[in-house]
From TrEMBL:
UniProt-listed NCBIfam families: PRK05422.1, smpB
Gene Ontology BP, a term: trans-translation
Keyword Hydrolase (UniProt): no
Biological function: Required for rescue of stalled ribosomes mediated by trans-translation. Binds to transfer-messenger RNA (tmRNA), required for stable association of tmRNA with ribosomes. tmRNA and SmpB together mimic tRNA shape, replacing the anticodon stem-loop with SmpB. tmRNA is encoded by the ssrA gene; the 2 termini fold to resemble tRNA(Ala) and it encodes a 'tag peptide', a short internal open reading frame. During trans-translation Ala-aminoacylated tmRNA acts like a tRNA, entering the A-site of stalled ribosomes, displacing the stalled mRNA.
Claim: Cytoplasm is one of the keywords in the record: yes
GO molecular function, one term: RNA binding
Region (Disordered): 133-153
Name the UniProt record assigns to this protein: SsrA-binding protein
InterPro entries xref list: SmpB, SsrA-bd_prot, SsrA-bd_prot_CS
Gene3D superfamilies: 2.40.280.10
Native organism: Membranihabitans marinus
Subcellular location: Cytoplasm
Keyword terms of this UniProt record: Cytoplasm, RNA-binding
Name of encoding gene: smpB
Cellular component terms (Gene Ontology): cytosol
Amino acid sequence: MAQSNTIQIKNRKAKFEYEFIEEFNAGIILHGAEVKSVRAGKANLADAFCYFKKGELYIKNFHIADYKYNTVLEMRPTRERKLLLKKRELRKIHKIVKEKGLTIIPYRVFINERGWIKVHIAVAQGKKVRDKRQSIKERESKREMARAKKIDY
């Protein structure tokens, strides 16, 4: 399916703000108009976060804009949505988050090869200021090396 590579909604600040410890791909429960909006790229992960409620994982503040041709249902753009993982994965994530006080961050939304919308989540730990400075230094050095390569040709 050619469409699988075209839709990728990312939370770009997540890599800068957090250090990812473990990553998972989860399904998400959406209504019809929400699926169409995500496929159109009208979604935003900037303020989204995940949490456990009664042993199940939910995503909150994942903004999906209203589909402009929707006439059936009126949805709240930032309502909580259930994430679908295997029980083994849920237990593992819950145990890690409970013990170490880590957080669960949704990093990107994509469409897999079967056409299903998936959310890539990460168990993460917040970076300290010095870690952020180190990330900036690494990024700057990579840019300078890339510039130097372009000049050499």
